[in-house]
Amino acid sequence: MTIPQPKQACIDLHCHSRASDGALSPRDLVLRAQERGVTHLALTDHDTIGGLAEACAAAAEVGIHLITGIELSCVWKSQTIHIVGLDFDAGSPDLVAALAHQHDNRWRRARTIAERLDRLKVPGLLDSATRFADGDVPGRPHFARALQEAGVVKDFNQAFKRYLGAGKPGDVKAFWPELETVLGWIHQAGGVAVIAHPRKYKMTATRLRALIADFGRCGGRGIEVSTSGQSSGDLGFVAELCRKEGLLASQGSDFHFPGAHWSELGSVPALPAGLDPVWHHFKSPIDHAGA
Ligand code: MN
Ligand code: MN
Ligand code: MN
Questions:
Q1: Distance (Å) from CA 251 to ligand 3 centroid
Q2: Is pTM, for the whole model, over 0.70?
Q3: Which of 91, 104, 164, 182 could form a disulfide with 74 if both were Cys (CB 3.0 to 4.6 A apart)?
Q4: What values do phi and psi take at 22, rounded to 5?
């Protein structure tokens, strides 16, 4: 009699589908994750849970454990911060209402950008930007592509330099909610909040610790320690911070599209020893050895 050996868990708790700015449909994303050996996946689209139902169906089909996820933008001390929410109830009425409200805010911003660019006398910019956003709310990168398509600029960089970058007409600040607000959404829905890619904010250690303190006061519990495109020095720095501040450790690839060697589903450095993985605190905790 052979005893089946438990499959080693491969956990990726940060990635994007076409429901936000990723290239793959939620279903194709899950299929790719399965091919790459991922056993536990959280789809964390920007400010939407619109891809979860499709991802969930695909995950059930191929035998991947799907954890509910989202990556919420918010403001902390005038800086935009990304918070990953995990293991929440996607049907929570408060969360659904809050995200719908946020969606309206983002459309208002898109229309404001389009109005400001109106003086360029290029018709239909909002429509073409929306097309580049795959029908979702266009942001500045989508307007950049629309400007390029209209022949107003020669490339993406020029679009930002002339029309969309800091201080230019299309530089409409996003209407993001406060850190405390988005943490409230995640917690009300029974989820756990994680500070995404902490080194991307280019903060000093002191400022980062101040963020962690405020985050903790609002019930935030985790920090992304292992993420792609991070130096080993940064990994060590965040691991140490995680340990000292008593936070739970998360990991995720932040995958957006195939072909980027620096970010692939399931490919993140192992968590350094001595950390408390966030997935041990999920409602159905993930055991590392047995998937
Ligand atoms: Mn993104
Ligand atoms: Mn992010
Ligand atoms: Mn992300």
A1: 12
A2: yes
A3: 182
A4: -85, 165
